[in-house]
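During the reporting period, we have paired protein sequences with backbone structure tokens. One record among many follows, to show the layout:
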Amino acid sequence: MTTSNDLTTRAGDASRPLPDVDAKVASGPTPRSSYREIVRALAAAQKPSKGAPAYSRFVNRRLGRLIAAEAFRLRLTPNMVTAISALFSFAGVALIAVVRPSWWLGILVFLCLVLGYAFDAADGQLARLQGGGRPSGEWLDHMVDATKISSLHLAVLISAYRFIQVPRAALLIPIGFTVVAAVMFFGMILNDQLRRQYESRTGKGLDRGGTSLVRSLLVIPTDYGLLCVVFILLAAPQVFFWVYAVLFAASAGFMALAAVKWFRDMKALD
């Protein structure tokens, strides 16, 4: 599932322009620059968000940076990178739904989802290198994300129904995870839009907070990147399903707490 912290991270990486950072990057490397120079420019421009989950913050961002640098040299567009991300992600989703769990399926799904997530982190960073993003790019990125986070859990539901021996009541778990994922995604997108409106209306910048290593580690059970890794457990389907259930419980609990905080944050904007 894509978590609130993960979406906050991506709000900084998305294709909308960030004036100070974009100007710095756009005036730096060109497609003819060395790969290392481009990677260094991206790393210098990156601003970690508060408490982003550990995998997303320390692994996926860096993978996305490496991909964005190569895409920049190949003169790909951010939308092309988004499309590649979608191909990997939806290939993994389809495999979960239609193929009986096995050790090779677990590895293949793991690779598809992890690569899809890494390319997802790359499209916004590539937009920065090219001088800032466009609304159409941000729209496409979010539409792909919204489809991915719901269809992934529905694929688990199909796989559990067809191939995994679990109590019938346990089939409610991926249904619940679908709801949690969709609500979390919508909530974070809406929060970001309302904050932008407030800043535009008042001219006041909102404090997004600093970074927190402890928080990054504490919220790792809600990390979409960790969920991608867990699919390697399809080699042992029942083990996978109950680990998946634990991640659902953690995500649902986090959403309940986050919703209270989000409402208070929005009340403060009144």
Observations:
- DSSP finds eleven helices and no strands in the chain.
- Residues 161 and 168 are 8 Å apart (CA to CA).
- The chain has one domain: 4-269.
